[in-house]
Amino acid sequence: DAGVTQSPTHLIKTRGQQVTLRCSPKSGHDTVSWYQQALGQGPQFIFQYYEEEERQRGNFPDRFSGHQFPNYSSELNVNALLLGDSALYLCASSSFPLVVLTEAFFGQGTRLTVV
Amino acid sequence: AQSVTQLGSHVSVSEGALVLLRCNYSSSVPPYLFWYVQYPNQGLQLLLKYTSAATLVKGINGFEAEFKKSETSFHLPKPSAHMSDAAEYFCAVSHTNAGKSTFGDGTTLTVKP
């Protein structure tokens, strides 16, 4: 089992550009969540996808958008990049909680640097 | 709204000493609670979780945590620190599912030889 895989691992972009980050969830998981972790802070919830739809969203602007594919993999898109978008972006996969709480597994993250 | 406060952004102990990582949460209803560990340049690894069963929860790497509803705390003690415990530790809460959690700002644990 490969676990949660994210690509790329590192990325450097210029202000104003657009970026796409990718995540493949752990085998058997159908729900993908994205987090932004700025340096020295805890992860901040961006949004969560299930059944190819955005189900929940944190306090992030519309510049942040996502997509989930039929195979449960997901993309995070950020438009009009700002210097403040520089962070580690984490993907977490889980099973949709129908009855009991299930565990979330995190990928190693994508380090985005905006210059 | 829920929030998480981790008391002490940095904790330094000697190898073999007691470690206590502290977490307080603010929530209108009892939430699910988690402790995660993050090693440099890696993602988060679940240490343990509380989901309304026993108040004492056992996790990996010899960690245990006690849920105290009256104190709204979920502290993480470990009797004896190892060099391999040096990492950043995050406390998190959720009301819905583990994929949507509110995290504290983390505590960096340093273990001195």
Q: Span between N and C termini of chain B?
A: 41 Å
* Number of distinct beta strands of chain A: 11
**Distance separating the two termini of chain A:** 36 Å
Low-confidence stretches of chain A: none
Topology:
The complex is a heterodimer of chains A (115) and B (113).
Chain A: E1 5-7, E2 10-13, E3 19-24, E4 31-37, E5 44-50, E6 53-57, E7 64-68, E8 74-78, E9 87-94, E10 105-106, E11 110-114
Parallel strand pairs in A: 2-11
Antiparallel strand pairs in A: 1-3, 3-8, 4-5, 4-9, 5-6, 7-8, 9-10, 9-11
Chain B: E1 3-7, E2 10-14, E3 19-26, E4 32-38, E5 44-50, E6 56-58, E7 64-68, E8 73-78, E9 87-94, E10 102-103, E11 107-112
Parallel strand pairs in B: 2-11
Antiparallel strand pairs in B: 1-3, 3-8, 4-5, 4-9, 6-7, 7-8, 9-10, 9-11
Describe, in plain words, how this protein is organized in 3D:
The complex is a heterodimer of chains A (115) and B (113). Chain A has 115 residues and is mainly β. Helix content of chain A is 0%, strand content 50%. Chain A is built from no helices and eleven strands. In chain A, strands 2, 4, 5, 6, 9, 10 and 11 form a seven-stranded mixed sheet that branches. Chain B has 113 residues and is mainly β. Chain B contains no helices and eleven strands. Chain B starts with a strand and ends with a strand. The interface between A and B is medium-sized, with 29 and 25 residues.
Give descriptors for this structure:
heterodimer; A: 115 residues; four-stranded antiparallel beta sheet; 11 strands; globular; B: 113 residues; six-stranded mixed beta sheet; 0% helix
Give a nutshell description of this structure.
The complex is a heterodimer of chains A (115) and B (113). Chain A is mainly β and 115 residues long.
